[in-house]
Hints:
single chain; alpha/beta; 5-stranded mixed barrel; 3-stranded parallel beta sheet; 35% helix; 20% strand; globular; binds S-adenosylmethionine; binds iron/sulfur cluster
Amino acid sequence: MNDADHEMLAERFAEVGFLPDCSLDDADIAVLITCAVRQNAEQKVFGKFRELTEWKRGRPGRAIAMTGCMAVEHGSSLLRKLPDLDYLFDVRDCDGFFARLQSIYASDLGGRLPMPASDRLLAFVSVMGGCNEMCTYCIVPFVRGRETSRPVTEIVDDVSRLVERGVREVTLLGQNVNSYCDPGTGAGLPELLAAVDSVPGLWRLRFLTSHPRNAVPALFEAMRDLPTVCEQLHLPVQAGDDGLLRRMRRLYTVDEYLAKIGAARATVPGLALTTDIIVGFCGESEAEFLGTERLLSDVRYDTVHLQAYSVRPGTAAARRPDDVPLEEKKRRLNHLLDLQRRIALERNQALVGRVAEVLIEGTTEDGRPFGRTRQGKIAILPAGSAVAGELRTGTVAGATAWQLDLRAVAPGAGQEGSGSARASRPEAA
Length: 429
Ligand code: SAM
Ligand code: SF4
């Protein structure tokens, strides 16, 4: 979400005559786009702010701005706490910030600057803001507000513009993206995916983050049928015990979740599944934790994002005791990390000998092209076999828990003929 905010702000800066993303040494303004989802994310922001204070003092005329979730959570108290902070604004409503910049820097402005030539192949497009769920541990509904979806037509225009500038893979973003609903037509995420899939020149389409409650068969069918939509589903489960899920207010049971996973896997061949887990939530007993361990062993995800529970002031869970000691949270976290590392290794090794398609993003330090497969796995190719921006297919020759090594590389389906990904899909690896 912060990347999507960054892209939107870069466009707005260019509109008012600023050069976005220049080096910090040359910059007049630094904008901190913040996250408040866990306490350590906030601590990082304060650390970065201290570095920027030094930068600001290095030359007169430099300024620091802050936006994102922390700006909403803490509001103007930040201006009192951080005397070097010059601007604080809500990223959902940044007209006032840019109007102020225009009034201050007016004499320097020569109108809209062209965006620097994009070397980006991948872009995030925010399709909705906010979240209507009220998971008891989560601060997002307080800082991002209620769900508001953008019209399909506007999103398709955004994607078309990005593709014209060289972007080949787009990830549609929402905190709860599968409850997307076009404000005019009522179209849902499957219809949005179909509309974006038809943008000429787009090779790959992904979406994040889905709440299990809204993961419906029509979504899985769209993933199966639309050529650009990649075989990757991020479906955060958070915990593998019904009591824990109730206390988190996730509004599904483990069995209901497993039924969704079963339907998704049965519908979309070669589907990669990823999830989010919180360990050490209020009152998490050993038995409840073992339920989460069992879920990981049973589902065998491709990737799991594991976090220790962090109290977020103002949330419902903040009123309960944070009673799993830090040491125990760390033990549970490390235990699940070890388990998942073994599972990821086995899943990746099972792909050896299969064919995978990779969108090349760059080159490793030792000169080998790398990118991601349609399933979102990092893949490394032989040196000299491809350059950034190309689609390549190859045979998986080796695997670790984190990456695949490909051999015998050929042009990918998406680059043959029409230059779109409408050719046949490679065998799912
Ligand atoms: N909307 C998604 C969902 O329904 O699961 C998740 C979006 S949330 C911003 C991203 C992830 O941060 C969550 O899946 C959760 O695992 C983690 N998270 C949120 N609040 C947290 C907290 N208080 N402590 C630890 N992790 C947290
Ligand atoms: Fe937070 Fe996701 Fe729950 Fe919304 S659905 S409250 S973003 S964890």
